[in-house]
Amino acid sequence: MYNACRMKLSITEENYLKAIFKLSERDNKAVSTNAIARQMQTSAASVTDMLKRLSEKKLLKYTKYKGVTLSEKGGKLSTNLVRKHRLWEVFLVDKLNFRWDEVHEIAEQLEHIDSPDLVNRLDAFLNHPKFDPHGDPIPSADGKFTLRSQQILTEVDHKLPVLVVGVREHSVAFLRHLDELDIHLGQQLEILERYDYDDSIRVRVGDHQQMISSKVARNIFVKINPS
Amino acid sequence: MYNACRMKLSITEENYLKAIFKLSERDNKAVSTNAIARQMQTSAASVTDMLKRLSEKKLLKYTKYKGVTLSEKGGKLSTNLVRKHRLWEVFLVDKLNFRWDEVHEIAEQLEHIDSPDLVNRLDAFLNHPKFDPHGDPIPSADGKFTLRSQQILTEVDHKLPVLVVGVREHSVAFLRHLDELDIHLGQQLEILERYDYDDSIRVRVGDHQQMISSKVARNIFVKINPS
DNA sequence: AATTATTTTTAGGCCAATCTAAAAATATAT
DNA sequence: ATATATTTTTAGATTGGCCTAAAAATAATT
What we know:
SH3 type barrels; 2 domains
């Protein structure tokens, strides 16, 4: 992965790549200039500029007015950024005792540190984690993501114990709300009853019960409890 | 220290500050434009540009043609950079098992990560180290350096067991040379004989003997062995 | 003190990344 | 299909950081 694309990019270029990577995760079609501008909190004009530059560096395929898709090179670079970001998040939570809602911004800086050796040693130091503190998969050094069977909490049957394995929302507010509900990765949940009239759900959270809104539940990934 | 100077600087600005800090460590007089240019591997003209900018930000006192001295603000910022650099070096060596000759470049990047909370937690995680892997003191959060009685190896009496506490040279070549001589921080040394005709010294290194050049010895800091 | 050498600053330009405003292309709606 | 709205690109300006070359200030030498 590293040797595949050892060119140094500016932090800005890396951030554009990551934004495009993120935007093309859902559907695999070309990403629009405007979407990137929104994601990067900048103007469409700046995006067009940057797309030209990244296109010249063969990091993406760019057709005027038609948006962009990452090239293989661009994809590998982005994946490596995601790898670094998530490994640093694990470090911050597991070793420095940060909460899961505090780590994103710092990892956003740390992911730009350029040293393959550092990343690999960090990975080893953390015992090769497969998921970050939010349950997102950490790509391996060769760019492979660990897949996992998971579903959204609202789509699970009643009376079926499940384990929390991830979240779909990463905002500080949402994460801290989950903290208050005592919902964290590895927590056992069980849907007890749904109240369709107000979109709320009664769940067992560990050994107590809780009412949660289905808006919250829709952002929690779970897997069937194998125990 | 942090609250005293919470302005964000560019990486370049931070590097200039660090360079000036380093150059004013030996003697306390004003640092010349040329000296900074040499240290930063850039032109005198660029330095003049930057000095104006840093001066406007009140980080240093700049008098045309007369060089610069850091202001209190500038001094604190530099000290904090040194603190971060050295803490990260400890992390890299102690936790990620890097050798002492490998860590400078990576720490050079990590020192620019901006998060007081991160630094303080890192400090705690490393058990508040007072010295980095080369024996250089790590300033505390409020900017104080731990002082230590030490002398240069060549200036120690014969037959006096001493402990290695630091190095004056940080080049990769020098550090690896010391590795080959089995000389590392904490190692016990004892000068057995000096050969003035070729400037070499016979020393006891731990439980064996070694010939080392006085050029090497002049770059080793030791303290009298208290045991 | 006058000349020479060195250091430092100024002047002018370049590049990456950004912006706003306007023009061009594409998409939507009647 | 024509008009309107939206998206995207171009044009031109700005800023930080860098450069070279030339001018100005200071230091060293005789």
